[in-house]
Design brief:
Strand content: 15-25%
Radius of gyration: 18 Å
Largest sheet: 9 strands, mixed
Order of helices and strands: HEHEEHEHEHEHHEEEHHEE
Strand order of the largest sheet: 3-2-1-4-5-6-7-8-9
Shape: globular
Structural class: alpha/beta
């Protein structure tokens, strides 16, 4: 299906695709994490690199086991990639511990400095819990997010639950969503994309808070869908557009259309228990 994002890609096409790095966990069901990120990068004609932070045994709605990677191994993954690829944008996903977040933050500082540029965009998707409610981030790690990684971010992309865990309070409607986003932007001194897909209504509304301005992105709400990995796909699509040189607002607009199409064109199968299972179609 041709969309405006594909037209943008065609207009920006060059002999070599831009390169984006995802620093995230591995999802065995391939619907979230680095698998979703790589599928998104590939669909948007961006060459994807990965630094794996943990291995997660999961299916949609259930996490069976999470095994963190040694922090120094994560650091080495980032270092060797930075030394050999022209990384144009970075995103982080599941980081799962305070020590991993600290290592990633230091590696990004070094990557930006060694590359001669402190402006490589960084999209931070603060993954705290799985779609099914399973905790994915240790409580002490949230403070390290705030003190070490958030100050490096170009954009932070919390959903409503994550925003509440970051100190924004409970969000129940558009007004409280706007108050929360403004508070987070003021607190963390960077752009915030607050994702409102869990609010009631006929549209999935996201709000960008940047430089004390509020910009709305909305799409028809697709009902009766039980996917996971939409946040990963959304932030990866934003990262891909930033790697191509899009402005932040344009990158979010393109990514919103992309993830909406992925949801609308999802595929469904029955598990052995007979339950319907949905997955995004990248």
């Amino acid at each position: 299906m041709r969309t405006r994002i594909q037209s943008t890609i065609n207009n920006q096409q060059s002999t070599s695709p831009p390169v984006a790095l995802t620093i995230a966990g591995s999802d065995s069901s391939a619907g979230a994490g680095i698998q979703a990120d790589l599928k998104t990068f590939a669909a948007l004609d961006v060459y994807g690199l990965t630094a794996v932070t943990c291995v997660v045994a999961e299916i949609p709605g259930k996490v069976s086991r999470l095994e963190p990677i040694d922090p120094e191994a994560i650091r080495e993954q980032i270092n060797v990639l930075a030394n050999h690829f022209p990384i144009a944008a970075i995103k982080t996903g599941l980081l799962c511990s305070a020590s991993i977040i600290s290592v990633v933050a230091r590696a990004i500082v070094d990557l930006r400095a060694d590359g001669g540029s402190r402006s490589i965009p960084l999209v931070v998707d603060p993954v705290i819990t799985a779609t099914g409610g399973d905790p994915l981030l240790k409580p002490d790690a949230v403070n390290i997010y705030k003190s070490e990684l958030f100050p490096l971010a170009t954009l932070i992309t919390p959903n409503l639950d994550e925003a509440a865990q970051l100190g924004a309070g409970k969000i129940t409607d558009r007004d409280s969503m706007e108050r929360a986003g403004k508070a987070l932007e003021s607190k963390f001194k960077t752009a915030i994309l607050l994702k409102g897909g869990h609010l009631p209504g006929n549209k999935a509304v996201d709000l960008l808070f940047q430089k004390e301005k509020v910009i709305e992105f909305s799409a028809p709400f697709v009902r009766d869908v039980a996917t996971h990995g939409t946040g990963c796909t959304y932030s990866a699509a934003i990262t891909a557009a930033l790697a191509r040189g899009s402005s932040l607002e344009s990158a979010i607009e393109q990514a919103k259309e992309f993830v909406t199409n992925c949801i609308a064109n999802r595929f469904r199968w029955k598990s052995k228990s007979g339950a319907n299972v949905d997955a995004l179609n990248h």
